[in-house]
Amino acid sequence: MDKCSLQKRKNKMLNYLFDWFRSQNFAGSAMFCSVSFRALMTLILSLLISTIFGNRFINYLKRKQITEVQRTAEIDPFGINKIGVPSMGGIIIIVAILIPCFLFGRLTNVYMVLMLVATIWLGAIGFIDDYIKIFKQNKEGLNGRFKIIGQVGLGLIVGLTLYLSPQIVIRENNTIVKTGDQKMVVHQKTSIKSTQTTIPFFKNNHLDYADFTQFLGKYAQLGGWILFIIVTIFVVTAVSNGANLNDGMDGMAAGNSAIIGVTLGILAYVSSHATYASYLNIMFIPGSEELVIFICAFVGALIGFLWYNAYPAQVFMGDTGSLTIGGLIAVFAIIIHKELLIPILCGVFLVENLSVILQVQYFKKGKKKGVKQRIFKRTPIHDHFRTDLSKMDINCSYKYTWPQQVFHESKITTRFWIVTIILAAITLITLKIR
User: What is the chain's alpha carbon radius of gyration, rounded to the nearest angstrom?
Assistant: First the structure.
Protein backbone atom coordinates (compact mmCIF):
# COMPACT_ATOMS: atom_id res chain seq x y z
CA MET A 1 0.00 0.00 0.00
CA ASP A 2 1.46 3.39 -0.99
CA LYS A 3 1.89 6.31 1.37
CA CYS A 4 -1.01 8.28 -0.11
CA SER A 5 -3.45 5.39 0.29
CA LEU A 6 -2.28 4.74 3.83
CA GLN A 7 -2.82 8.37 4.78
CA LYS A 8 -6.32 8.32 3.38
CA ARG A 9 -7.30 5.14 5.17
CA LYS A 10 -6.55 6.40 8.61
CA ASN A 11 -7.17 10.11 8.34
CA LYS A 12 -10.22 11.25 6.43
CA MET A 13 -13.93 10.43 6.49
CA LEU A 14 -13.93 10.30 2.67
CA ASN A 15 -11.47 7.39 2.74
CA TYR A 16 -13.72 4.90 1.07
CA LEU A 17 -14.80 7.19 -1.76
CA PHE A 18 -11.20 8.17 -2.48
CA ASP A 19 -10.07 4.54 -2.35
CA TRP A 20 -12.80 3.62 -4.84
CA PHE A 21 -11.61 6.33 -7.22
CA ARG A 22 -8.11 4.90 -7.02
CA SER A 23 -9.32 1.32 -7.51
CA GLN A 24 -11.09 2.42 -10.69
CA ASN A 25 -7.88 4.08 -11.90
CA PHE A 26 -9.43 7.52 -12.22
CA ALA A 27 -6.97 9.96 -13.70
CA GLY A 28 -5.46 12.23 -11.07
CA SER A 29 -6.92 10.30 -8.13
CA ALA A 30 -3.57 10.53 -6.30
CA MET A 31 -4.22 14.21 -5.71
CA PHE A 32 -6.91 13.37 -3.15
CA CYS A 33 -4.30 13.10 -0.40
CA SER A 34 -2.52 16.34 -1.29
CA VAL A 35 -2.83 19.35 1.02
CA SER A 36 -3.54 21.75 -1.85
CA PHE A 37 -6.46 19.69 -3.18
CA ARG A 38 -8.01 19.15 0.23
CA ALA A 39 -7.53 22.81 1.15
CA LEU A 40 -9.23 23.96 -2.05
CA MET A 41 -12.12 21.53 -1.59
CA THR A 42 -12.50 22.62 2.03
CA LEU A 43 -12.62 26.28 0.99
CA ILE A 44 -15.25 25.64 -1.68
CA LEU A 45 -17.40 23.46 0.56
CA SER A 46 -17.30 25.90 3.47
CA LEU A 47 -18.33 28.70 1.11
CA LEU A 48 -21.24 26.66 -0.20
CA ILE A 49 -22.39 25.66 3.27
CA SER A 50 -22.23 29.18 4.68
CA THR A 51 -24.14 30.66 1.74
CA ILE A 52 -26.73 27.94 1.03
CA PHE A 53 -27.27 26.75 4.61
CA GLY A 54 -26.88 30.34 5.78
CA ASN A 55 -29.84 31.52 3.72
CA ARG A 56 -32.11 28.78 5.04
CA PHE A 57 -30.93 29.27 8.61
CA ILE A 58 -31.56 33.02 8.44
CA ASN A 59 -35.10 32.39 7.20
CA TYR A 60 -35.60 29.98 10.09
CA LEU A 61 -34.36 32.58 12.59
CA LYS A 62 -36.76 35.13 11.10
CA ARG A 63 -39.72 32.77 11.37
CA LYS A 64 -38.88 32.02 14.99
CA GLN A 65 -38.13 35.72 15.66
CA ILE A 66 -34.75 34.88 17.16
CA THR A 67 -33.39 38.40 17.45
CA GLU A 68 -31.01 39.98 19.91
CA VAL A 69 -32.06 42.65 22.38
CA GLN A 70 -31.72 45.88 20.37
CA ARG A 71 -28.46 47.73 20.87
CA THR A 72 -27.64 49.80 17.81
CA ALA A 73 -30.69 51.44 16.25
CA GLU A 74 -30.60 54.42 18.59
CA ILE A 75 -27.03 55.40 17.57
CA ASP A 76 -27.28 54.81 13.82
CA PRO A 77 -27.35 58.37 12.36
CA PHE A 78 -28.32 57.14 8.89
CA GLY A 79 -31.73 55.80 9.81
CA ILE A 80 -31.01 52.11 9.29
CA ASN A 81 -33.42 50.15 11.45
CA LYS A 82 -31.78 46.99 12.75
CA ILE A 83 -34.61 45.97 15.02
CA GLY A 84 -35.69 42.45 14.14
CA VAL A 85 -32.43 41.39 12.46
CA PRO A 86 -31.78 37.74 13.46
CA SER A 87 -28.85 36.91 15.68
CA MET A 88 -26.91 33.70 16.50
CA GLY A 89 -25.60 33.67 12.94
CA GLY A 90 -22.34 32.34 14.34
CA ILE A 91 -23.93 28.91 14.07
CA ILE A 92 -23.59 29.27 10.29
CA ILE A 93 -19.85 29.88 10.66
CA ILE A 94 -19.34 26.96 13.03
CA VAL A 95 -21.25 24.48 10.84
CA ALA A 96 -19.36 25.69 7.75
CA ILE A 97 -16.07 25.05 9.56
CA LEU A 98 -16.84 21.69 11.13
CA ILE A 99 -18.36 19.79 8.20
CA PRO A 100 -15.54 20.38 5.67
CA CYS A 101 -12.89 19.65 8.32
CA PHE A 102 -14.56 16.36 9.26
CA LEU A 103 -14.74 15.40 5.59
CA PHE A 104 -11.31 16.49 4.36
CA GLY A 105 -9.20 16.81 7.49
CA ARG A 106 -7.00 14.13 8.98
CA LEU A 107 -8.83 13.38 12.18
CA THR A 108 -5.83 11.63 13.72
CA ASN A 109 -3.78 14.82 13.46
CA VAL A 110 -3.52 16.42 16.91
CA TYR A 111 -3.50 19.94 15.49
CA MET A 112 -6.75 19.37 13.60
CA VAL A 113 -8.38 17.75 16.63
CA LEU A 114 -7.29 20.64 18.85
CA MET A 115 -8.80 23.22 16.47
CA LEU A 116 -12.07 21.28 16.23
CA VAL A 117 -12.28 21.03 20.02
CA ALA A 118 -11.63 24.78 20.29
CA THR A 119 -14.39 25.48 17.74
CA ILE A 120 -16.99 23.45 19.63
CA TRP A 121 -15.84 24.71 23.05
CA LEU A 122 -15.98 28.41 22.16
CA GLY A 123 -19.14 27.96 20.11
CA ALA A 124 -20.86 26.48 23.16
CA ILE A 125 -19.85 29.44 25.36
CA GLY A 126 -21.07 31.93 22.76
CA PHE A 127 -24.29 29.99 22.21
CA ILE A 128 -25.12 30.04 25.92
CA ASP A 129 -24.47 33.79 26.00
CA ASP A 130 -26.74 34.41 22.99
CA TYR A 131 -29.41 32.07 24.37
CA ILE A 132 -29.61 34.10 27.59
CA LYS A 133 -29.79 37.37 25.64
CA ILE A 134 -32.45 36.21 23.20
CA PHE A 135 -34.64 33.69 24.99
CA LYS A 136 -34.24 35.03 28.53
CA GLN A 137 -34.42 38.65 27.30
CA ASN A 138 -31.37 39.52 29.39
CA LYS A 139 -29.14 41.81 27.31
CA GLU A 140 -26.22 41.24 29.72
CA GLY A 141 -26.04 37.62 28.56
CA LEU A 142 -23.78 35.10 30.25
CA ASN A 143 -22.06 36.46 33.33
CA GLY A 144 -18.62 37.76 32.41
CA ARG A 145 -16.83 35.57 34.92
CA PHE A 146 -18.22 32.42 33.28
CA LYS A 147 -17.00 33.60 29.87
CA ILE A 148 -13.55 34.16 31.34
CA ILE A 149 -13.61 30.74 33.01
CA GLY A 150 -14.50 29.15 29.68
CA GLN A 151 -11.74 31.00 27.82
CA VAL A 152 -9.19 30.24 30.53
CA GLY A 153 -10.29 26.60 30.44
CA LEU A 154 -9.67 26.40 26.70
CA GLY A 155 -6.29 28.09 27.08
CA LEU A 156 -5.38 25.50 29.72
CA ILE A 157 -6.47 22.63 27.46
CA VAL A 158 -4.47 23.99 24.53
CA GLY A 159 -1.37 24.67 26.62
CA LEU A 160 -1.40 21.26 28.33
CA THR A 161 -2.01 19.45 25.03
CA LEU A 162 0.95 21.18 23.40
CA TYR A 163 3.04 20.21 26.43
CA LEU A 164 1.92 16.61 26.86
CA SER A 165 1.21 15.34 23.34
CA PRO A 166 4.17 13.42 21.82
CA GLN A 167 2.92 14.37 18.33
CA ILE A 168 3.56 18.05 18.90
CA VAL A 169 7.20 18.70 18.09
CA ILE A 170 9.36 21.09 16.09
CA ARG A 171 12.66 20.93 14.27
CA GLU A 172 14.98 23.75 15.18
CA ASN A 173 16.69 25.76 12.46
CA ASN A 174 20.41 26.37 12.51
CA THR A 175 22.47 28.73 10.38
CA ILE A 176 25.63 27.21 8.95
CA VAL A 177 28.40 29.01 7.10
CA LYS A 178 29.42 27.45 3.79
CA THR A 179 32.32 28.42 1.55
CA GLY A 180 33.25 32.06 2.08
CA ASP A 181 30.55 34.13 3.77
CA GLN A 182 27.62 32.23 2.28
CA LYS A 183 25.10 31.18 4.90
CA MET A 184 22.37 28.57 4.77
CA VAL A 185 19.60 27.66 7.18
CA VAL A 186 19.08 23.97 7.83
CA HIS A 187 16.73 22.15 10.17
CA GLN A 188 17.84 19.50 12.60
CA LYS A 189 16.80 15.98 11.67
CA THR A 190 15.61 15.23 15.18
CA SER A 191 12.21 16.54 16.25
CA ILE A 192 11.98 17.95 19.76
CA LYS A 193 9.43 19.43 22.12
CA SER A 194 10.21 23.07 22.63
CA THR A 195 8.98 26.23 24.33
CA GLN A 196 10.40 28.35 21.54
CA THR A 197 8.29 30.87 19.65
CA THR A 198 8.88 33.26 16.77
CA ILE A 199 9.65 36.86 17.70
CA PRO A 200 9.42 39.59 15.03
CA PHE A 201 12.10 42.03 13.85
CA PHE A 202 15.04 40.37 15.63
CA LYS A 203 17.81 38.61 13.73
CA ASN A 204 17.79 35.73 16.18
CA ASN A 205 14.08 35.29 15.71
CA HIS A 206 13.40 32.67 18.37
CA LEU A 207 12.37 33.37 21.94
CA ASP A 208 12.45 30.51 24.41
CA TYR A 209 10.10 30.82 27.37
CA ALA A 210 12.50 28.61 29.33
CA ASP A 211 15.09 31.41 29.18
CA PHE A 212 12.95 33.34 31.66
CA THR A 213 12.93 30.48 34.17
CA GLN A 214 16.65 29.65 34.29
CA PHE A 215 16.61 30.52 37.99
CA LEU A 216 14.71 27.26 38.53
CA GLY A 217 17.81 25.27 37.64
CA LYS A 218 17.00 21.75 36.48
CA TYR A 219 13.30 22.67 36.45
CA ALA A 220 13.83 25.55 34.03
CA GLN A 221 12.26 23.70 31.11
CA LEU A 222 9.18 22.80 33.16
CA GLY A 223 8.99 26.43 34.29
CA GLY A 224 9.15 27.46 30.63
CA TRP A 225 6.14 25.30 29.84
CA ILE A 226 4.20 26.73 32.76
CA LEU A 227 5.00 30.25 31.51
CA PHE A 228 3.95 29.19 28.01
CA ILE A 229 0.60 27.89 29.31
CA ILE A 230 0.01 31.18 31.14
CA VAL A 231 0.75 33.11 27.94
CA THR A 232 -1.60 30.78 26.04
CA ILE A 233 -4.44 31.47 28.47
CA PHE A 234 -3.86 35.22 28.22
CA VAL A 235 -3.71 35.24 24.40
CA VAL A 236 -6.85 33.12 23.98
CA THR A 237 -8.81 35.31 26.39
CA ALA A 238 -7.57 38.62 24.96
CA VAL A 239 -8.08 37.81 21.28
CA SER A 240 -11.46 36.19 21.86
CA ASN A 241 -12.70 39.27 23.73
CA GLY A 242 -11.11 41.56 21.14
CA ALA A 243 -13.03 39.90 18.31
CA ASN A 244 -16.18 40.08 20.42
CA LEU A 245 -15.73 43.83 20.86
CA ASN A 246 -14.92 44.26 17.16
CA ASP A 247 -18.27 42.72 16.26
CA GLY A 248 -20.20 45.96 16.46
CA MET A 249 -20.75 46.86 12.81
CA ASP A 250 -22.05 44.94 9.84
CA GLY A 251 -19.26 42.84 8.34
CA MET A 252 -16.60 44.25 10.64
CA ALA A 253 -15.49 41.20 12.64
CA ALA A 254 -16.08 38.72 9.81
CA GLY A 255 -14.02 40.74 7.32
CA ASN A 256 -11.14 41.44 9.69
CA SER A 257 -11.03 37.81 10.83
CA ALA A 258 -11.01 36.50 7.25
CA ILE A 259 -7.99 38.68 6.45
CA ILE A 260 -6.24 37.50 9.59
CA GLY A 261 -7.15 33.91 8.70
CA VAL A 262 -5.52 34.16 5.27
CA THR A 263 -2.33 35.47 6.89
CA LEU A 264 -2.28 32.67 9.45
CA GLY A 265 -2.83 30.17 6.65
CA ILE A 266 0.28 31.44 4.87
CA LEU A 267 2.28 31.21 8.10
CA ALA A 268 1.03 27.68 8.75
CA TYR A 269 1.87 26.56 5.23
CA VAL A 270 5.45 27.85 5.29
CA SER A 271 5.93 26.43 8.80
CA SER A 272 4.87 22.98 7.57
CA HIS A 273 7.14 23.07 4.51
CA ALA A 274 10.81 22.37 5.31
CA THR A 275 12.16 24.29 2.32
CA TYR A 276 10.11 27.43 2.91
CA ALA A 277 10.77 27.30 6.65
CA SER A 278 14.50 27.15 5.95
CA TYR A 279 14.32 30.06 3.53
CA LEU A 280 12.44 32.22 6.04
CA ASN A 281 14.58 31.00 8.94
CA ILE A 282 11.62 29.86 11.01
CA MET A 283 11.07 26.60 12.85
CA PHE A 284 9.73 23.62 10.91
CA ILE A 285 6.55 22.13 12.45
CA PRO A 286 5.88 18.59 11.16
CA GLY A 287 2.18 17.81 10.70
CA SER A 288 1.03 21.42 10.79
CA GLU A 289 -0.07 21.26 7.14
CA GLU A 290 -3.45 20.08 8.45
CA LEU A 291 -3.91 23.55 9.88
CA VAL A 292 -4.03 24.82 6.29
CA ILE A 293 -7.13 22.65 5.79
CA PHE A 294 -8.74 24.12 8.89
CA ILE A 295 -7.93 27.73 8.06
CA CYS A 296 -9.40 27.30 4.56
CA ALA A 297 -12.66 26.20 6.18
CA PHE A 298 -12.40 29.16 8.57
CA VAL A 299 -11.85 31.72 5.81
CA GLY A 300 -14.48 30.17 3.52
CA ALA A 301 -17.07 30.19 6.32
CA LEU A 302 -16.41 33.86 7.09
CA ILE A 303 -16.50 34.99 3.46
CA GLY A 304 -19.74 33.10 2.91
CA PHE A 305 -21.16 34.63 6.08
CA LEU A 306 -20.25 38.09 4.79
CA TRP A 307 -22.73 37.54 1.96
CA TYR A 308 -25.46 38.06 4.55
CA ASN A 309 -23.60 40.05 7.20
CA ALA A 310 -22.33 42.87 4.95
CA TYR A 311 -24.07 46.23 5.38
CA PRO A 312 -27.02 46.29 5.83
CA ALA A 313 -26.80 43.01 7.69
CA GLN A 314 -29.43 40.32 7.26
CA VAL A 315 -28.03 38.48 10.27
CA PHE A 316 -25.72 39.15 13.21
CA MET A 317 -23.13 36.57 14.24
CA GLY A 318 -23.71 37.18 17.95
CA ASP A 319 -21.31 35.92 20.59
CA THR A 320 -21.72 32.45 19.11
CA GLY A 321 -19.61 33.68 16.22
CA SER A 322 -17.44 36.49 17.62
CA LEU A 323 -16.11 34.65 20.67
CA THR A 324 -15.43 31.61 18.50
CA ILE A 325 -13.53 33.28 15.66
CA GLY A 326 -11.38 35.32 18.05
CA GLY A 327 -10.47 32.28 20.11
CA LEU A 328 -9.70 30.20 17.01
CA ILE A 329 -7.33 32.87 15.73
CA ALA A 330 -5.50 32.81 19.07
CA VAL A 331 -5.28 29.01 19.30
CA PHE A 332 -4.10 28.76 15.69
CA ALA A 333 -1.34 31.33 16.23
CA ILE A 334 -0.19 29.57 19.40
CA ILE A 335 -0.03 26.17 17.69
CA ILE A 336 2.27 27.47 14.93
CA HIS A 337 4.41 29.33 17.52
CA LYS A 338 3.48 32.76 16.17
CA GLU A 339 1.57 34.14 19.18
CA LEU A 340 3.99 37.06 19.56
CA LEU A 341 2.91 38.26 16.12
CA ILE A 342 -0.67 38.64 17.40
CA PRO A 343 -0.27 42.27 18.58
CA ILE A 344 0.64 43.21 15.01
CA LEU A 345 -1.66 40.92 13.04
CA CYS A 346 -4.65 41.46 15.34
CA GLY A 347 -3.85 45.12 15.97
CA VAL A 348 -7.46 46.10 15.38
CA PHE A 349 -8.63 43.72 18.11
CA LEU A 350 -5.90 45.05 20.42
CA VAL A 351 -7.01 48.66 19.92
CA GLU A 352 -10.64 47.69 20.49
CA ASN A 353 -9.67 46.09 23.82
CA LEU A 354 -7.47 49.00 24.88
CA SER A 355 -10.10 51.61 24.00
CA VAL A 356 -12.62 49.99 26.33
CA ILE A 357 -10.11 49.54 29.15
CA LEU A 358 -8.88 53.14 28.89
CA GLN A 359 -12.43 54.50 28.69
CA VAL A 360 -13.53 52.62 31.79
CA GLN A 361 -10.45 53.55 33.83
CA TYR A 362 -10.60 57.21 32.79
CA PHE A 363 -14.29 57.38 33.70
CA LYS A 364 -13.65 55.79 37.11
CA LYS A 365 -10.80 58.20 37.77
CA GLY A 366 -13.07 61.17 37.07
CA LYS A 367 -15.85 59.68 39.16
CA LYS A 368 -13.58 59.67 42.21
CA LYS A 369 -13.02 63.40 41.66
CA GLY A 370 -16.70 64.05 41.12
CA VAL A 371 -16.11 64.76 37.40
CA LYS A 372 -17.91 63.09 34.52
CA GLN A 373 -15.30 62.45 31.85
CA ARG A 374 -14.54 60.13 28.97
CA ILE A 375 -11.66 59.79 26.53
CA PHE A 376 -13.66 58.81 23.44
CA LYS A 377 -17.18 59.66 22.37
CA ARG A 378 -18.02 55.98 22.56
CA THR A 379 -16.23 52.65 22.82
CA PRO A 380 -15.21 50.20 21.41
CA ILE A 381 -13.22 52.57 19.23
CA HIS A 382 -15.17 51.90 16.02
CA ASP A 383 -18.26 53.41 17.66
CA HIS A 384 -16.31 56.62 18.26
CA PHE A 385 -16.35 57.33 14.51
CA ARG A 386 -20.10 56.93 14.05
CA THR A 387 -21.25 58.85 17.10
CA ASP A 388 -22.64 62.37 16.75
CA LEU A 389 -21.17 64.55 19.51
CA SER A 390 -24.27 66.77 19.53
CA LYS A 391 -26.27 63.80 20.80
CA MET A 392 -23.89 62.93 23.61
CA ASP A 393 -24.12 63.83 27.29
CA ILE A 394 -23.58 67.60 27.58
CA ASN A 395 -22.55 67.20 31.23
CA CYS A 396 -19.61 64.97 30.29
CA SER A 397 -16.24 66.18 29.02
CA TYR A 398 -14.61 64.26 26.15
CA LYS A 399 -10.85 64.25 25.66
CA TYR A 400 -10.97 63.36 21.96
CA THR A 401 -13.87 64.52 19.81
CA TRP A 402 -12.25 64.15 16.39
CA PRO A 403 -13.74 63.63 13.89
CA GLN A 404 -16.56 66.12 14.27
CA GLN A 405 -18.52 64.57 11.40
CA VAL A 406 -20.12 61.15 11.54
CA PHE A 407 -18.87 58.44 9.18
CA HIS A 408 -21.14 55.91 7.56
CA GLU A 409 -20.93 52.43 9.04
CA SER A 410 -19.83 50.82 5.77
CA LYS A 411 -16.99 53.36 5.39
CA ILE A 412 -15.73 52.65 8.91
CA THR A 413 -15.88 48.91 8.29
CA THR A 414 -14.01 49.15 4.99
CA ARG A 415 -11.30 51.33 6.54
CA PHE A 416 -10.85 48.89 9.39
CA TRP A 417 -10.45 46.12 6.80
CA ILE A 418 -7.78 48.18 5.04
CA VAL A 419 -5.93 48.68 8.32
CA THR A 420 -6.05 44.92 8.95
CA ILE A 421 -4.70 44.22 5.45
CA ILE A 422 -1.79 46.59 6.14
CA LEU A 423 -1.13 44.91 9.50
CA ALA A 424 -1.28 41.48 7.83
CA ALA A 425 1.32 42.61 5.27
CA ILE A 426 3.56 43.94 8.04
CA THR A 427 3.21 40.63 9.90
CA LEU A 428 4.45 38.68 6.88
CA ILE A 429 7.21 41.18 6.20
CA THR A 430 8.55 40.78 9.75
CA LEU A 431 9.69 37.30 8.81
CA LYS A 432 12.31 38.84 6.51
CA ILE A 433 12.99 42.18 8.26
CA ARG A 434 15.52 41.06 10.84
Answer: 23
Mind listing the pLDDT tens digit for each residue in 116-141? Answer: 999 999 999 999 999 999 888 888 88
Residues 51-70 pLDDT 10s: 999 999 999 998 888 876 55
* Chain CA centroid to CA 207, Å: 22
Q: Which helix (H) or strand (E) holds 396?
A: none
Q: For the stretch 10-20, what's the b/e string if a residue is b when 16 or more beta carbons lie within 10 angstroms of its beta carbon? A: ebbebeeebee
pLDDT at 31: 67
Determine the Cα–Cα distance for residues 33 and 273; give it in Å rounded to an integer.
16
**Strand partners of residue 183:** 177
User: 245 with 354: CB under 8 angstroms?
Assistant: no
Other residues' Cβ atoms within 10 Å of the Cβ of residue 304: 25
Most distant CA atoms of the chain, gap in Å: 81
Span 333-352, average pLDDT: 96
| 89 Cβ contact partners less than 8 Å away, ≥ 6 residues apart | 54, 57, 58, 61, 305, 308, 309, 315, 316, 317, 318, 320, 321
Q: How is 271-296 classified by DSSP, letter by letter? A: HH-HHHHHHHT--B-TTTTHHHHHHH
End-to-end CA distance of the chain: 45
